[in-house]
Specification:
Elements lengths: L13 H29 L1
Length: 43
């Protein structure tokens, strides 16, 4: 699993950080769905 990298630049806008966090969470959800789908197919 990738470690979530926080933006070190203090000047970064909150919007950019929020967008990155949202993308990270969406990717994690997709990964869980793929895993669950794989488990279901295996059964």
């Amino acid at each position: 699993m990738k470690t979530f990298r926080l933006v070190s630049d203090v000047g970064s806008s909150q919007h950019t950080v929020a967008a990155q966090l949202r993308n990270h969470m969406d990717g994690h959800k997709r990964l869980e769905v793929l895993v669950l789908h794989g488990e279901a197919e295996r059964v």
